[in-house]
Amino acid sequence: MHRRILLGAALAMPTLLSIPVRAQGTGGGVITLNGASQFNDEHAFTKAMMRFEELVKGYYGKPVNFVLHKNSSLGLEKQYFEYMAQGRAVDYAIVSPAHMSTFSRAAPFIDAPFIFRDLAHWNGVLDQDLLKPIADEVERRARVALIGYAGGGTRNIFANKRVSNMAELRGLKVRVQGAPIWSRTFQAAGMAPTVIAYNEVYNAIQNNVIEAGENEAAGVEQMRFYEVAPNLAMTQHAITIRPLCFSSQSLARLPNDLQAAIRRAGKEAGAFGRQVESSEDTQKLDALERAGRLRRVEFTERAEMKRLVDPVMAAYAKEIDAEAILGRINAVTA
User: Fold this and answer.
1) Which is more confident, 107 or 234?
2) Which domains does the chain have, with CATH numbers?
3) Of 214, 236, 251, 292, whose CB is crowded by the most CB atoms within 10 A?
């Protein structure tokens, strides 16, 4: 499966520059907007972007074409963000904050490990728009607007062996996202983190390069990680926030009323995506476990894992001048 994804992405690359630059917002042609998703129609991210399309069309009230390139046909999220920053090939996509770190050191802080106590706390932070300073920095430096927030999946560690406590976690060779905060926090918890491209994780575990990865239920299901790592340690170390992004350069070329429709629809589509993913999380794990594809393993020392990680998070917040944001997040009582 992964070989097919890579081949599809490779074949797509020579044609990226041939994808038309979007209409300028004037003239006679119908505007076309290009989106990208690593996943198929069943994934929460794709569903959120399809809802975004519906909402924009409804709010704009005039003809506009959407082309959503699915199943990694335009590469991976890291490439989508780069294309949006350059104002070419991709107008909108849902992207992990880890892929924004080149432009904003604070971006991965959006959903760093152990920053949220639970889903109620996570929702409270989003409802109060406490992440706006980070979103403003990303838009200023990367020229990509964060127009909504999807996500809501609780991330756990999938491994090719049983992991239920800190002793069993020690030295675990685990794939993490590219942002430095992920390597630092996992090292602090005693693991041996390594950065590997998302579409290479399956083969890396299969070939014993690593022993584990970490993801939410939708990713474990979509990428079939349970086939090579059927033990899911319920560390619940992060709750995802996945910004719905739109190229600022593309946005500026559009009519003002379409820009307004896009920003309005982005917020609502993000909220829809959060509802879909957070509600589907347990359902997907239940179904996989009933089918005998994975085993949920209770992780008995989450509090100890958090105790080791908290000083790293505090130091990181200070390093990136996000202490005030972390303080406001911690103060949310929801």
Assistant:
1) 234
2) 2-325 (3.40.190.170)
3) 214
Identify the residue whose tokens are 């103060």. 331
Q: What's the rounded Cα separation, in Å, for the pair 159 and 191? A: 12
Those residues with Cβ within 8 angstroms of residue 220's Cβ, 6 or more apart along the chain or in another chain: 158, 226, 232, 284, 285, 288, 294
Task: Evaluate whether 219 touches 197 at the Cβ level (below 8 Å).
Answer: no
**In one letter, which amino acid is 107?**
A
Q: What is the pLDDT of residues 169-200, one digit of tens each?
A: 999 999 999 888 999 999 999 999 999 999 99
Taking the C-alpha atoms of residue 319 and residue 88, their distance in angstroms, rounded to an integer, is 33
- DSSP β-bridge partners for residue 149: 243
Instruction: Give the H/E segment covering residue 234.
Output: strand 231-247
Q: Which residue has the tokens 């090719």?
A: 160
Tokens read off for 263: 């920003």
Instruction: Summarize pLDDT for 86-143 with one digit per residue, the tens.
Output: 999 999 999 999 899 888 888 988 889 999 988 899 989 998 999 999 999 999 999 9
| Cα–Cα distance, 299 to 301 (Å, whole number) | 6
Cα-based distances in Å from 211 to 142, 160, 214:
34, 6, 11
Residue 92: helix, strand or coil by DSSP? strand
pTM, 2 dp: 0.82
216 near 153, Cβ under 8 Å? yes
218-to-42, 46, 240 alpha-carbon distances in Å: 9, 11, 11
